[in-house]
Design goal:
Distance between the termini: 33 Å
Radius of gyration: 22 Å
Low-confidence stretches: 1-20
Number of domains: 1
Number of helices: 17
Helix content: 55-70%
Strand content: under 5%
CATH topology: Amino acid/polyamine transporter I
Mean pLDDT: 82
Oligomer: single chain
CATH class: Mainly Alpha
Number of strands: 0
Length: 475
């Protein structure tokens, strides 16, 4: 496969402006992908998955990995075909050319970032309480800490945060450490004859084989939250050395590594802690550490967990506020949301807007499964569109060679994502209500912006998708 002609000069094909500096080699890209997938999902939702399927908690994570892998192949074709710093919004705009559809995709990505950060805030509060014995009993205490945590995130966001690949490597190592501790404790316990390994094959009692299948599907819709994040890597295309050659093998390797880690963590967890006990509360992995290594300081593991989910929240709120700011600057959201603080040079109105939405989700939705499930629902819908866009864009040829996924994969990817988005999966109706409310807010703002644009004689910019494609959420 020959590299695109423009890559040596650092300029995307057909563009006169220089692109971002290509500094990421294969290993840095791999760490970025692994770090982006790892996060709140596996730390907070393992117990909730166990509530649905019992001891076979690993199966929904495996099924979610399979669906994510199908969609990853679609992203691979698109990112090597259009190696630019954008994402689902760009691919949607190229495929369908409808500004409103592009806006909906971009707003859905933004909304998923807020729901993901809200999930992380609840997980942070729960781990803080359990790890350090604060006794924040009931939903009120957890909610108050979650709101305070989100306020701190907003303060950091307002101050301005410079992201770097080196920082991402450090954060990835911290997140990995917590999960490796669980794996090592699990392997040690299994090797020493502790725990009950037979639980990994036990399904929660249901109405026959059909009941077990639908329980696994319902759990997969929740476990999918742990697999999102791989789509973020397409935003690094302009900063990756030889992306056409590098992305396919590195993205697939990153998914394989994280999928393996999730399987080992879930098996370790259920071996050491019965499913009913694992599913109680919002700190399942703390229970695993306490059961498998009673002498291990829970405060240390709690700190690692809080560090991991805090990073997830910060990254998601940074993404969401910048995406709102970008949509405002492109005249698809009210101009007020595009204002920049004169001293800090941060989009303070967009930060306030996204933070208020997060406050509402933390206070009125609250539960981690509902928030995490809403994140997965929004992204599953986006992934459905991306899988369809791959097929539509087959008619669009480019001069350089690129990765081409077998046609059956995006077809299966679109079908599986569309299936998992449906109410027949047993998805909590609250997730549709939350997602619908967020999208309704976006549509209302779009309509208001249309009237503002008509009054001022402006219109959405043509390179809309390229500028607001932005970064997707980390889980």
């Amino acid at each position: 496969m020959q590299p695109a002609d423009d890559r040596e000069h650092g300029t995307p094909e057909g563009h006169a402006e220089p692109s971002l500096h290509r500094v990421m080699g294969p290993w840095l890209l791999l760490l970025f992908i692994v770090g982006d997938i790892l996060g709140t999902g596996i730390y907070a939702l393992t117990g909730k998955v166990a509530n649905l399927v019992g001891g076979a908690v690993w199966l929904p994570f495996l099924m979610a990995f399979g669906v994510a892998l199908l969609t990853a192949f679609s992203y691979l074709e698109l990112v090597t075909k259009y190696p630019r710093a954008a994402g689902a919004a760009l691919y949607t705009h190229r495929a369908f050319g409808i500004h409103f559809v592009t806006f909906l995709v971009a707003f859905a990505v933004m909304a998923s970032g807020i729901t993901s950060a809200s999930t992380a805030s609840r997980a942070f509060a729960a781990n803080l309480s359990d790890a350090f014995g604060l006794g924040l009993a009931g939903g009120v205490g957890i909610t108050l800490v979650g709101l305070l945590f989100m306020t701190a995130i907003a303060a950091v966001n307002l101050r301005g945060v410079g992201e770097s690949v080196k920082l991402n490597v450090l954060l990835t190592c911290v997140e990995l450490t917590g999960l490796l501790i669980i794996i090592v404790i699990g392997l040690w316990a299994i090797g020493g004859g502790h725990g009950d390994f037979s639980r990994v094959l036990e399904f929660k009692a249901g109405e026959g084989a059909g009941g077990a299948v639908w329980a696994a599907i319902a759990a997969t819709t929740l476990a999918f939250f742990a697999m999102v994040g791989f789509e973020d890597s397409v935003n690094m295309a302009e900063e990756t050395k030889d992306p056409v050659r590098t992305f396919p093998k590195i993205l697939l390797l990153g998914l394989l590594i994280t999928g393996t880690i999730y399987l080992l963590v879930s098996i370790s967890a259920i071996t050491l802690v019965p499913p009913d006990e694992l599913g109680e509360g919002e700190t399942p992995l703390l229970k695993v550490v306490a059961a498998g290594a009673p002498g291990f300081p829970l405060g240390l593991f709690g700190f690692i967990t809080m560090f991991a989910v805090a990073n997830s929240a910060l990254i998601n709120m940074l993404m969401a506020s910048r995406l709102v700011y970008g949509m405002s600057r492109e005249h698809v959201l009210p101009p007020l949301l595009g204002k920049v603080h004169p001293a800090r040079r941060t989009p303070y109105i967009a930060i306030a807007f996204t933070t208020l939405l997060a406050f509402a989700l933390i206070a009125f939705v609250g539960e981690v499964p509902a928030l995490g499930g809403t994140t997965a629902l929004l992204l599953i819908c986006v992934f459905t569109i991306v899988n369809v866009a791959v097929l539509v864009l087959r008619r669009d040829t480019v001069e350089h060679e690129h990765f081409r996924t077998p046609t059956a994969l995006p077809v299966l990817g679109a079908a599986s994502c569309a299936f998992l988005a449906g109410p027949w999966t047993g998805r909590n109706p609250v997730e549709y209500q939350v997602a619908g409310a967020l999208i309704a807010i976006g549509i209302a703002l779009w309509i208001a912006t249309v009237y503002i644009n008509r009054a001022t004689g402006t219109a959405p910019s043509e390179p809309l998708a390229e500028d607001i494609g932005g970064k997707g959420p980390r889980n």
